[in-house]
Amino acid sequence: MFEEHKPVSRDDVCTLLRSRSIDLEGFAAIADVEGTLPEPQRPSRLAEGMETFVVFAKRSLRGVTHSRHLPSKQLAGGRTLRALDLAAEELARWLERRGHLALPVSTAALDFETRSPLGVTPAGQGSELLRQAAVVAGLGTWGLNRMILTRRFGPRIHLGGVMTTLEIEADSPLTDDLCLGLEECGRCAAICPEDAIPRRARLGSALEEARGLDRVACARSCQPFGFQSFEDHLVHIFESTEAKEMWTRMRSRKTGEMWTEMAMMKEGSLTGCSECVQVCPVGEDYDQIRAGDDRSHDLPDELPHHIKDGWYELENLGPQIRRATSWDREKRK
Amino acid sequence: MSLKSDLVDFALAQGADSVGIASVAAYSDRVPNGQRPDFLIRGTKSIVVVSKHLLTGAMAVQDVPTQSTNSHLALDIAEEITYKSAEWLEERGHLALPVSPEYADLDLKRSGAGLLDLKWTAEFAGLGHVGLNLNFLTPEYGSRVYLGALLSDVELEPDPPLDTALCPGLACGRCAVLCPSDAIPREAPRQAHVNDYRDLDQKACSQSAMRISIRSLYSVLRKLLEADGTLDTNEVLDNRYWKEFYIATNSKRGAFAACFECMYVCPVGSEDIRKIMRVPYRRMDLPPGRVTHRRSDALHEIDFLGPPPDRDPEYIRDREFDELVQLSRRQQRSTAP
């Protein structure tokens, strides 16, 4: 069934991933990831006996970040998640041909019990397991909004991974936070259309204390026609008391958008909003991104804030360029 | 080697059949509605368009779901080529945005509109010609092609549009006489050029081409909601329609491309049409001499034939629940006091 074990080096794995347009990769010992997660998210829930977590990232196209068209961003995010799944599949098969068990780990593999769509907020960057593995493998560090920030691309990446029985020397986690935190930056919190990112923290408190995300609120924008929205829409339809009213609700634009999402967006159903991603100043790519026609107007340099009784509080400004998006339409109603 | 020729070589190596470049500024000046590049992203200068043909073998089979699958694969390949080409451009310091070839934006038009209307983009970029039925034709594969595109801030030398029309219009008219929904023009002013009368009744076309889509769902739900009598729930649920709807939603088969009649008979295509016409039943889709032309001083008309009768049930799936609804009405009338 499996071929004889053949030597596989870190470089071999990196070379294969780079040939598949993967931008960043890292290695973590499964045991190190295991202990840092609550039981339902642990690697052992997926497979026992694995030794190494190969975690990798693909950057978002800068043109996608520059774009002003929400569905194009959403589709591109879905496409990136799919490319990561394909790269993971390819690496896993490559490892198995060399005699090592391997399991691709997908962000979109949800079971609605231990891994719900809320676990993929914000922006569908990666599952909780993949994000934690990325931190342990030194790919990046946690941001204020619970995304992973990387040196080269800030949070403008999506994550994929493979667990394998092959032992590979692990990378070390980064020692310093890349995220500048609420007081020094807070741009993700100021722009979030759902006000889902913490805007208030004790003056001088550590990033870890302030970090957080209202996942339900975040999902309203980053999964605009996702599962929760689908459920809400069905309830809305079936609460109709007359056939005519029911028909009107069924025939609404939202039903059309919901169907389009299911038929076409696929993994993109998890990548609907990227406002916080676009304004994060971390990453070697940020200067070029900020110079773009649309991105330069996202937020002012000085964010309005208040300091009172030892607490720092930032104002939520929301996206400066109002797009005719579903979340806006819903709010207007 | 220039950046343009390197990019074209890269896209061809990824599987594109042809690659063309259009200038964003020049193209935008010609677009009469909101489907302009700056709706998606500002500051780009070039549109890169690629084509990918349907497998000739898929066109030669009779099974529509198989063709539907192949059409989505061809479109997916075209889209993948634009993603890889966008990465290629960004690796060289430029910005690039792949444009979804199938997403219909409801902000552009209430019933949905493509983001760039790629057929016009491709014609502008010199890849081919938009034919009588608004299908895009290339010299090599006629209308049996799918398109992908990306926008970039790099200025690439645009390609000129073709200087001759590939589609002969009503002088051929094969797509129009066969269309199950009669959605393609069958008459035009006698001396007019095909570019002046090429058109499509999109709603009618969608009844065949997107027959298991949101439109058919609305139609079916309305029918069931407005049924006068009591419907048998088991009969409603145990219906082929829901199974096909599930498949269409899950895999797009039947949702976006489920009618290929006009493609079977388009005679343009130096690479594939002879092979397709060697298949006996493909040749009998529209036997030679069956197109009837009527010409007066003012008008050129052709008569409607429709597809071979044995394919008709494939195309009109909204009939699905008619019998059930009528039965329920009859039962209600018979039990009325």
Topology:
The complex is a heterodimer of chains A (333) and B (337).
Chain A: H1 10-19, E1 24-29, H2 30-34, E2 52-59, H3 62-66, H4 70-97, E3 102-105, H5 128-136, E4 141-142, E5 148-149, E6 157-164, H6 181-184, H7 187-191, E7 200-202, H8 207-210, H9 215-222, H10 227-238, H11 243-250, H12 253-265, H13 275-279, H14 286-290, E8 305-308, E9 311-314, H15 326-332
Antiparallel strand pairs in A: 1-2, 2-6, 3-6, 4-5, 7-9, 8-9
Chain B: H1 3-13, E1 18-23, H2 24-30, H3 37-40, E2 46-53, H4 56-60, H5 64-91, E3 96-99, E4 104-105, E5 113-114, H6 118-124, E6 129-130, E7 136-137, E8 145-152, H7 174-178, E9 187-189, H8 194-197, H9 202-209, H10 214-225, H11 233-237, H12 240-251, H13 261-265, H14 273-277, H15 280-283, E10 293-295, E11 299-302, H16 312-315, H17 322-335
Antiparallel strand pairs in B: 1-2, 2-8, 3-8, 4-5, 6-7, 9-11, 10-11
Briefly characterize the structure.
The complex is a heterodimer of chains A (333) and B (337). With 333 residues, chain A is α+β, with helices and mostly antiparallel strands. Chain A is built from 15 helices and nine strands.
Mean residue pLDDT of chain A = 92
Structural class of chain B: alpha+beta
* Overall 3D form of chain A: globular
Please outline the major beta sheet of chain B: 4 strands, antiparallel
Assembly context of the chains:
heterodimer
**Biggest interface, chains and residue tallies:** A-B, 33 and 44 residues
Approximately how much helix is present in the residues of chain A?
Answer: 25-40%
Judged by helices, strands and strand pairing, the structural class of chain A is: alpha+beta
**Biggest sheet character of chain A:** 4 strands, antiparallel
Strand order of the largest sheet of chain B: 1-2-8-3
Computed over alpha carbons, the radius of gyration of chain A is 21 Å
Mean pLDDT score of chain B: 91
